[in-house]
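Lab meeting prep.
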Amino acid sequence: MASVVIEADDEQVIPGDLNAHVQDDKLLLPREVADALRKDGVRTAEDLLSYMTAFPSSVAYQLHWSLLDVSNAAAKLRTELEGHIPSDRLHPKPRLNPPLGARDPSELR
């Protein structure tokens, strides 16, 4: 699958909804959202979904949203991107083992 590139359009953004639409190989986002994200190097739909998942407070700050708004928008974005980006990118599996060798405190003696 080819990358789905972000492009700006004249739609209005609503808290909790990016108002994102896939058209051909482009993800159309309201101009204010696209411009704000472009400053942080977000160029593709995969970048956007990863950014919203890894740094929700940053997205919330930039868009003047709550964390719940960002979470809702990410869920709607996943639905919009079904069939356009690989499923493992839409729904990544959580790590079974904590990174950097951290151990579960309940397993310690």
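Slide two material, second protein:
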Amino acid sequence: MIERFFCALFGHKYVVQMVFSSTSRKLGCSRCSREWGMHDPTRSLVAWDKELEDMHKLLGQWPLKEKGE
């Protein structure tokens, strides 16, 4: 809970979690654990949800699962 307060005051600590293409990736905050989808051409950052994840899987941009998963 305190992490969200710090992010609200000082901004998120963004880290790239996954790269889907040269212009699309999944970002997360190492402090509060929130996640976003980022699209460079439109300069968009949207909250990550199941619908966005399903879209990347449908487009074949999701990493293949390791054996045993």
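Talking points for slide two:
The two ends are 31 Å apart (CA to CA).
DSSP finds two helices and four strands in the chain.
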